[in-house]
Amino acid sequence: VCDVTLKLDLSNFDFATKKGAKFTVSAVKQTPEGPMIGDVDGDGEITIKDATMIQKLALGIGYPEDFQEIAELMAIADTNGDGLVTIVDVTLVQKYIVGGYNNTGLVGVVAVG
Asked: For the chain, what percentages of helix, strand and coil (3-state, to nearest 5) are there?
């Protein structure tokens, strides 16, 4: 998650020559205000490690001991919001990581408590 600022400076722009305009882009990484859907390891980034952890959860392995922790983890792993953790959730995380896809479900959205 980041804030992106686009700035177009036309103060030195010459309309006749079409020169002198300056364009800048700045991106500042922001820390989300809560856990992000898909970030099951809780490190603030969605990586292949998260995809692997979700895949294990979908297969029924790798559960933590505490029931409350399991419920929270499963909610963060459910990237399409269907109430289940399946290979579809893994695929959405993989698509998010690679980039360029329009449909990545809820991956990267801040989870609401």
From this structure: 30, 20, 50
Coil, strand or helix at 109? coil
Residue 68 phi, psi dihedral angles, 5° rounding: -60, -40
Record the pTM.
0.69
- How many angstroms separate the CA atoms of 24 and 41, rounded? 34
* Residue labelled with tokens 């980041």: 2
Task: Work out the angle between the directed axes of helices 87-98 and 48-59 (0-180°, nearest 10).
Answer: 170
Rounded to whole angstroms, the Cα distance separating 79 from 93 reads 7
Which residues are CB-neighbours of 72 under 8 A, at least 6 positions away? 35
Distance, in Å, from the CA atom of 20 to the CA atom of 86, rounded to the nearest integer, reads 53
**Contact of 46 with 92, CB cutoff 8 Å:** no
Measured CA to CA, the distance from residue 70 to residue 87 in angstroms comes to 18
Lowest mean pLDDT among 36-45, 55-64, 73-82: 55-64
State phi, psi for 46 to the nearest 5 degrees: -105, 115
